[in-house]
């Protein structure tokens, strides 16, 4: 049977479960539901199973490690890829990090990855570019870039990354005021540049959870603890006599990263816990940094005068990039601004919008290993679509009664999928390959010229009449 001739009277969810203590009324409602379903299905017709040819190419947005990994995963399967990057260099945040928790340098890995991407015959990289507009749907997207060029592709992977929180307000701790206060990434820059001044530091303090796990950003940024502990160990390697204090709320060096915490304790790094009710106070006294906090282990207030204060700041979404892309691709974002997957367990790299996938820090704070794994997973999911010649398209699409259409153009303005246009006569035309049956054009039409197949006035009014029939 054609699936569009099926109509369900949901007696269980909409009746027996919600009216279980009123059986007589529930029975009467059940009869109403069945009568409405019968009346509605009488006016419905068999609809075709539409298919859309798949454009066998991919778009990857973001040229960081995640985006490059996804692009190579597509290209190695011989699919053409366009990789779009908003800056003039590939590598993203990874270029600002000295090494990973295993002690492996990032820059050689990133440079090798970037060389593979730029030399791959199936990958086209667009630098200093952004997305201006997106049209179409799964299998047949058309994306317009900021330079006016357009690209046809069947799938898209969003990997725009995140960005570090810039300390401000009560979390500023003299950052930008005192030259001896740095963020973790600023300290990494010193490691990368082999700054000799780091060897002369006698005392350093690391402040964890700066901007994380607070009402404005209630999530844990996950990698900060590992990064901070590893940076402290690196300082100890440069100067074993250096005194280092870790002011932390909770240490989350999870999994095998726990060995870093054990190594740090073994090297004499002191961990002092604080909470939001006893926030460490940072000031300048006699030209030097002064940090006052409470040590709950000895139950006493302590004062530290370090030569350097390092702030482990939160990871936050790129608000502008993620926000605009969520509108272009009709993707959801969570309360913090991170892009939201379709289902945490069942579809962890899919968006609710078919044909669009996500990976990396734009989804949630995660380590580079996890970002790489997610990039490969997103490319694998997208390749399922690219491997097909055609994919199912929406059958319940809009239809225009041209005799009623006045050509006002409201339907073209409200359509989120660019499926409606005006022909040479100024009348509405529906591109059924791009229409998703959302009904926005139906609601916006002033002359009742647009309806949805099998959800027209005839079916709706028949169900309403049946509901009030004795």
Give structural notes.
The protein is of the alpha/beta class and 470 residues long. The chain is 29% helix and 22% strand. It contains 12 helices and 24 strands. It has a 5-stranded parallel beta sheet with strand order 4-3-2-8-19, covered by helices on one side. A 5-stranded parallel beta sheet has the order 10-17-11-12-13. α3 (65-75) packs parallel to α9 (368-386). The two termini are 31 Å apart. The model has no long low-confidence stretch (mean pLDDT 93).
Q: Look up the CATH topology of the largest domain.
A: FAD/NAD(P)-binding domain
Widest sheet, order of strands: 4-3-2-8-19
The radius of gyration computed from the alpha-carbon positions, rounded to a whole number of angstroms, is: 29 Å
Average pLDDT figure: 93
Under CATH, the homologous superfamily of the largest domain reads: FAD/NAD(P)-binding domain
Count helical runs.
Answer: 12
CATH architecture label of the largest domain: 3-Layer(bba) Sandwich
Beta-strand content bin: 15-25%
- Given as residue ranges, the uncertain stretches (5+ residues, pLDDT < 50) are none
Q: Specify the biggest β-sheet.
A: 5 strands, parallel
By CATH reckoning, the class of the largest domain would read: Alpha Beta
Please give the domain count. 3
Termini gap: 31 Å
Structural class: alpha/beta
Overall spatial form: elongated
Q: Give helix % range.
A: 25-40%
Question: What is the number of strand segments?
Answer: 24
